[in-house]
Amino acid sequence: MAETKSNMDVSEEQTAGNAADQIGQLRETIREHQYRYYILDAPAVSDLEFDALFQKLLELEAEHPELRSADSPTVRVGGDVSERFERTRHPAPMLSLQNAFSMEDLYAWRERVKRFLPEERRGELTYVVEPKFDGLTVVLHYEQGQFILGATRGDGEYGENITPNLRTVRRLPLRIPVMSETKLTAPERLVLRGEAYVDKADFEAYNRRQAAEEGRTFANPRNFAAGSLRQLDSGISAGRPVKLWVYQALILEGVGPFPATHSGNLEYLNELGLPVYPDYRCFADEAFDALADYVADFGERRHELPFEVDGVVVKVDSLELQTILGFTGKDPRWALAYKFAGEEAVTKLTDIVVNVGRTGAITPNAVLEPVQIGGVTVKSATLHNEDYIRDLDIRINDTVLVKRAGDVIPKVLRPLLEMRTGEERAWLMPAVCPACGEPLVRSEGEAATYCVNNACPAQLVREVEHFVSRGAMDVEGFGIKQAELFVEQGFIKDLADIYYLPWESIQAMEGYGEKKVANLMSAVEESKSRPVDRLLTGLGIRFVGDVVAETLMEQYASLDELMAASVDELSQIEGIGPKIAQSVADFFALEPNCALIEKFKAAGVQTASERTGQAEDKGPQLFAGMTFVLTGTLPNMTREEATAYIEARGGKVTGSVSGKTSYVVAGESPGSKLDKALRLGVTVLNEAELLGFGEKTE
Ligand SMILES: [Zn+2]
């Protein structure tokens, strides 16, 4: 391009030129995604990816104000109104809510609310907490009790008239009050805000059928709900399992008096026969800590709900106080959306390193720029194997989508191809083991690559790490660091060497003071008396985890007896398949493995069952086979403590009451679970009765 200019000018111009290209491309991509999302209801990327792209565009436009343009997607945010539907103006703008992502945000919001209220009114503050349903927001109009109009939220000011489709939603009453025996008369005018949604199970069932029949599926229940209601043919909507909750009266006119609180309104709407989610909670301002606990607890239990929830909404209950509080910009001051931490995040993959596992399997791992997911900082994630990386075309320096669900190891879902800058480079599986330098092997037809060197120190380190782990011999203070050190020093050449460690030499090493060594020594000593199934687990035999180990050691009084068992005999045991049986027999067929057991015995490690010891370890199994549901606040135990108490005695704790529930344990201010228990005739216990349960039955 500008050949005659100085170097400096050229590079500046190039940067600007690149930025213009990148901005242009981003705009195009975002427009396309918006169209797919809002109009076609068939998004090609996740919300997170979309947000990342959008954020990138905002940043670039901020850096290059000269490239701003009125037709950029950043100028008009989301919510296009499809021309396929008649536009309808909402009676008042559909507001958005302030978001909170942490408890600090929640408490800060409360302080702001109080600050904006006259001091003498602060005593009246109570709050309502409701789930934040993840569906399609709808605005419903009733006149003289007749459902006359229903619209999408659209851009907040205008929505799409989808009345015929909404009429197909069975939960939506076409006339209120629904029950003729109620004494209520319909208000002259009622405009409601609600959420149309699809249950997770219905969504999955539909997608499974759909995948089989047409190959086109929906990304998530929300898109499914939206897509179902934005059909031109309401016959299609009618065939979809769309449900509805209403959660706010926007306009309520007629002969009053009408409730003065939001919760009163919810109750009133419920009495009219409208679908109101029953488990909303009210908290006084003095009980704000309890509110915060409830919010946190709700976040943990939200997956148990049949529908998707991405947070809770906290509102000031008094409508008069709401009016006093008013708005800040577009957001009401009296409401807050508390968003639960997502399970996915976008970050940069800076490197790929390989790990040698206990079995010699080589696992590539992504080194990530640290990112918060669900309150945990994630710095690495698994990439499974070579094929996974190749099939998804994951490269070093890629921006990637990472998922972490529960306690599962985080994994890289995919690279965001639109975020590539040209600095990405492909990765190749190393040819030799990073721990021992021997060539790596990948057998034909197998996805995994292995280091097959039996003497590979990395494998021994992993074996030791597994052996001392909590699920196996549970040696406190003994972790990967100790495993690495002792293997490297040559102290450990096989697993039994853990019981023959040269403590004097260890104490001479840096970082191993007298106290630390004494603790480690006694932890090693203590582990000798673990139940024998723990030792069996610790051996790391293929397919033999803690459950299988327990099953096996229930059949055999000692490892000697187990070692003598044939494959046939082993496969007769319930829960032991031929693969496990073969694996166990193979392990003990090897002479060094038998010698290892003898070495354990010589060290004084328990290799036979001690029934009494085991029973003591578990406690009496009072609640075996029983299912419990907890509700409300117990006087002395937290929910976690009560759960642990029940589980330690063989019981199960679930989230919802059903015919299969054995007992409901109820504390103060119980929720709808108690009502349901009473309806179903499930016995209700208080905390004292739960704790006294053994005495009662014995
Ligand atoms: Zn190796």
Structure description:
The chain has 698 residues and is an alpha+beta fold. 38% of the residues lie in helices and 19% in strands. The protein has five domains: 7-67, Helix hairpin bin (Helix Hairpins); 98-339, D-amino Acid Aminotransferase, Chain A, domain 1 (2-Layer Sandwich), CATH 3.30.470.30; 344-450, Beta Barrel (OB fold (Dihydrolipoamide Acetyltransferase, E2P)); 457-607, DNA polymerase, domain 1; 619-697, Rossmann fold. It is built from 26 helices and 23 strands. The strands form six sheets. Strands 14, 15, 16, 17, 18 and 19 form a six-stranded antiparallel β-sheet that branches. It has a five-stranded mixed β-sheet with strand order 2-13-10-3-9. A hairpin with a 7-residue loop joins strand 17 (399-403) and strand 18. The longest helix has 33 residues, at 7-39. Bound molecules: zinc ion. Zinc ion binds at residues 356, 433, 435-436, 438, 451, 453, 456, 458. Residues 356, 433, 435-436, 438, 451, 453, 456, 458 line the site of zinc ion.
